[in-house]
Design goal:
The protein is of the alpha/beta class and 287 residues long. 38% of the residues lie in helices and 18% in strands. It has three domains: 112 residues, Tetrapyrrole methylase, N-terminal domain (Cobalt-precorrin-4 Transmethylase, domain 1, 3-Layer(aba) Sandwich); 102 residues, Tetrapyrrole methylase, C-terminal domain (Methyltransferase, Cobalt-precorrin-4 Transmethylase, Domain 2), CATH 3.30.950; 44 residues, no CATH class. It is elongated.
């Protein structure tokens, strides 16, 4: 087999390089990324303390310039002028691919306006990594970070729940227990994977049926990448509970958990778990 070496001309062009960095394990960086960072006059980064660990590991001496969400607009003119003068500048984030739920898109758009070359250096991404181990549909929708306010979170999850594909989003550990009731409400009967500390020492993947979710007893560290499975439409399921089904649930609701009731009814009736869950929830709220 003859392997043709790719021309290095493009990697030596002046312009802005969007360089993907490891999402945890510092070994998860490409040779091309290291070469690009070494030849850069400047490296734009979110947190110089975080990026310095990576640069020290690979003996990269290029100058770091802080470029985060609080100063990226302020930095814009200075960086564009440097690029116009022929400098090679790389943009990195603390982890993963820049400008995807991280600073960068403002600078990229300004480079487009000024006809400045933009060269991507692909690499690690928490999104594709999480989807690859989920076992869910390869067709997915990435939603970035959930908003902060409760009503905004509810509105967002409601919109996502109608998509007939896997759904991926980021959420902070502090927010995770707040959204579990909403996940159970909007994504009933679907599966979920919580990806924590991807590629790091305490890497963990928690797989659950959404109906069985319980709040985390101990707040997990860091940010979570969450993957929810595609919709599981059971065309053979009845859409409604009969009066006898409702009477039976009324008798069980004070003695059994909602999960136990769903398991019992599902054993002998073709009724969607979401229908049973919603009726049980209604009774609980009435009491």
């Amino acid at each position: 087999m003859i392997i043709k070496l790719q021309s290095q001309k493009k990697d030596n062009e002046n312009g802005l390089y969007i360089v993907s960095t490891p999402i945890g394990n510092l070994k998860d960086i490409t040779l091309r990324a290291i070469e690009t960072l070494k030849k850069s006059s400047f490296i734009l980064c979110e947190d110089t303390r975080v990026s310095k660990n990576l640069l020290d590991r690979y003996e990269i001496k290029s100058k770091l310039i802080p470029n985060h969400k609080f100063n990226e607009t302020k930095n814009l003119d200075k960086i564009i002028n440097l690029l116009k003068s022929g400098e090679i500048i790389s943009l990195i984030s603390d982890a993963g691919t820049p400008s995807i739920s991280d600073p960068g898109s403002i600078l990229v758009n300004e480079c487009v306006k000024n006809n400045i070359k933009i060269i991507p250096i692909p690499g690690a991404s928490a999104v594709s990594t999480a989807v690859s181990i989920s076992g869910f549909s390869e067709k997915f929708f990435f939603n970035g970070f959930l908003p902060d306010k409760k009503q905004s979170i509810i509105n967002e999850l409601k919109k996502l729940s109608v998509l007939d594909q896997s759904v991926v989003f980021f959420v902070s550990a502090k927010k995770i227990n707040r959204i579990i009731p909403e996940l159970k409400n909007f994504f009933s009967d679907r599966k979920i994977v919580f990806c924590r500390e991807i590629s790091k020492l305490y890497e963990e993947y928690i797989r659950e049926n959404i109906n069985d979710l319980e709040p985390f007893k101990k707040e997990p560290k860091g940010e979570l990448t969450i993957v929810i499975s595609e919709k599981n439409d059971d065309k053979n399921s009845s859409q409604d509970l009969s009066e006898s089904d409702k009477n039976l649930i009324n008798k069980m609701i004070k003695k059994l958990s909602i999960k136990e009731i769903i398991d019992i009814i599902s054993q002998y009736k073709k009724i969607s778990k979401k229908t049973i869950y919603n009726y049980c929830l209604k009774l609980k709220n009435e009491n």
